[in-house]
Amino acid sequence: MSKNPRWIVYLLIFIVLLFIPRILSIHDLMLFEYGITFAIVGLGFNLLLGYTGLLSFGHGAYFAAGAYTVAMIGKYFPQAYSLEILIPAALFFSMVLSIIFGFVCVRHTKIFFSILALSLSMLLFALLFKLYHITGGSDGLRVPLPNLFGMSFKGIRRPEFLSGTYYYFLLGMFTVSFLVMKGIVGSPFGKALQAIRDNEVRAELIGIRVRRYRLYAFVISGMFVGLGGALWTFVNGHVTADLSHWVFSGEIVYMTLLGGFGIFEGPIIGAMIFTYLKLYAMGNTQYWMFVIGGTLIVLVLLLPNGVAGAFSTLWSKIKKSD
Amino acid sequence: MEMLLKIENLDVFIGSTQILRNISLGVNEREIVCLLGRNGAGKSSIIKSIIGLYPSRSGKIFFKEKDITPLSPRKKVLSGIGYSPEDTRIFTELTVEENINLSTWVRGKGEIFSYEKIFSIFPKIKDFLDRKGLNLSGGEKKMVSIARALALNPSLLLLDEAFEGLAPLVVNHFMEALNQIRKLGVTILLGESNVRIVSQVTERTYIIERGEIIFEGHPREILENEKLLKLVGR
């Protein structure tokens, strides 16, 4: 591990990340935290898109599963409203949902898979929207500050919470997610997924259980996205049914494409850029969707491998010229 | 010698078109048998039917005396049939080592075709183990494709057009490799269109023409028969 210069870069970035709360203003720090939660989402989403070759337009559903698990425990079981319970619960419910939805979706590929995933997420959206008395409907649910191992944050303002304990909790969760996903994609299972992506018939011909492996990838992906959703709620303070809408799922696809799905770190970079791009575009023009759409067009035409892909190509060229 | 693979009256259709008619053949243990024919004659279709990519409408396929006709390709592979397809199709984004390891990972622990055995057949593979599949030449891809099939520890190896597009020197090397594989106890069914090559590696050949078997015998008989030679196109 230490022989690989990439791990030295990771370590250096991690050290810098430790000091981020001292560097950024509270506003920028909150944005950065949004970015980190989306980075976890991107890592999970890319297991399906980049490594298994399945494009889901319904991953907002698992994000919503994680987010609503937190919000509903806060509303209905306040005695259990502690991070050490909320995170496993969010992982569990996003896993259950992705097993059910995944079981239906992985029987198909390409456009059929994408549309099925989208339809199922819209089904969840309809439920979250219509079951007003349980989910808060279009008003959504408020997310109070959680406890952590008996530590209560009552009386503390959200910005203070986010710039202290929670930032480091979030960083810890991101680091664990990063390492776990790195392990998954480098494992025989991860290589089998890549084989399925390259050619599923050939993969079956060397004995890989294609559909089952796809389901595993779908569930792991859903759990990562659910974890991102759960962590996001504390930064946002509020959840609504829109999280399961296809437009939000589209944003997950967008940030992954923006960073580059062919590279492990791509979705992380994409998530960070997207968070800042969206906010600054929204803050500066009412036509912010043009900015997002325009960026996507430029991306597809000029940087089909995303920002990380472009850097990677550039780096390879520099190395070759040496 | 016991019969390892036996096909009885196999009929295969794609849509409403019949591509194989009443195919019956047998392959004995530790034998190299060839399916010879021109492009489009039906060699690949027979191999694909054996591995399960083309389902049969009637007829039976027996492997080690068990009826494997209805099994999925994955189950056939795990029962001991290795397959190296015509277009090789190794996984381009994985390294050569990962391509070969995938088979052993899937197969799990136990008796596996070791790297030493693979290197003894294809010593050149050692030199590009860490190279991605994308960056290999045609001959190298074929080597990896066969090595990957061998890593599943098959009793029967199906090779579709193993010699196609190879330089003459490489062809000689591949012929030696096939003999080595046979000596290691693996039976080979080869789909090939070049009768000269076939005559050097096999002792029993079936000629396929328009989805039917029209000849079974020693390849020498083909070389001595103008009519057959004309039929197979060399």
Descriptors:
heterodimer, A: 322 residues, mainly alpha, two-stranded antiparallel ribbon, 16 helices, B: 234 residues, alpha/beta, 6-stranded mixed β-sheet, 4-stranded antiparallel β-sheet, 10 strands, globular
Task: Please describe what this structure looks like.
The complex is a heterodimer of chains A (322) and B (234). Chain A has 16 helices and two strands. Chain A has helices at 5-18, 20-23, 26-49, 60-76, 83-105, 110-130, 132-135, 158-163, 165-186, 188-198, 200-205, 210-236, 246-259, 266-284, 288-302, 306-321, and strands at residues 141-142, 238-239. Chain A has a domain at 23-245. Chain A has 322 residues and is an all-alpha fold. Helix content of chain A is 75%, strand content 1%. The two termini of chain A are 25 Å apart. In chain B, 35% of the residues lie in helices and 28% in strands. Chain B is globular and about 45 Å long. Chain B starts with a strand and ends with a helix. The mean pLDDT of chain B is 86. At the A-B interface, helix 10 and helix 11 of A face helix 2 and helix 3 of B.
What can be said about this structure in brief?
Chain A has 322 residues and is mostly helical.
Task: Describe how the helices and strands are arranged.
The complex is a heterodimer of chains A (322) and B (234).
Chain A: H1 5-18, H2 20-23, H3 26-49, H4 60-76, H5 83-105, H6 110-130, H7 132-135, E1 141-142, H8 158-163, H9 165-186, H10 188-198, H11 200-205, H12 210-236, E2 238-239, H13 246-259, H14 266-284, H15 288-302, H16 306-321
Antiparallel strand pairs in A: 1-2
Helix pairs in contact in A: 3-9, 3-12, 3-13, 3-14, 4-5, 4-12, 5-6, 5-12, 9-10, 10-12, 13-14, 13-16, 14-15
Chain B: E1 3-14, E2 17-28, E3 32-36, H1 43-51, E4 56-63, E5 66-67, H2 73-78, E6 81-84, H3 96-107, H4 115-121, H5 138-150, E7 156-160, H6 168-183, E8 187-192, H7 195-201, E9 204-209, E10 212-217, H8 219-223, H9 226-232
Parallel strand pairs in B: 3-8, 3-9, 6-7, 7-8
Antiparallel strand pairs in B: 1-2, 1-4, 4-5, 9-10
Helix pairs in contact in B: 3-5
